[in-house]
Amino acid sequence: MNAVADQFANRGVGSYFIYTHEAHPGENYPHLTSMAQKFKHAYALRDVLGVKRPIVVDALDGACHRTYGSMPNMTWIFNQSGIPVYKSDWSDASSVVNALSYFLDVRDRRKRGDRLAPFNVHRLDYRNQDRQAFYHGLERNGPKAVREFKDAFG
Question: pTM for this one?
Fold first, then answer.
């Protein structure tokens, strides 16, 4: 997602990472019990995974995360008026690029004088599922994270 943020930064698109909680806590990154610990985990996310976008840290009780759907890896796009125009229950760079390109085209068309009316769309997108990278992330959190995930999902 860093590359997506870089690709669209010169077109007036801001991108933020909201750190909510550890989806799969383990010995290295345990369940969060304080804001100090939460900030420490957010700094590690930045440093270990190379997140370049500004990281906003959610409240300890996850108020922001709950407000926006509680999914583990969501992406939202808001227009300049603060209205949500895209919501995905999983972050996928291709889907986000497609949506940003579309909405920037809408903005350009309106500047040219096109009269556009909004409508809602529901579509199913597909993402590559890299199990090896996923398990590598679980291992980074610790053996407890791997064990609990395998016990829950096989």
Answer: 0.88
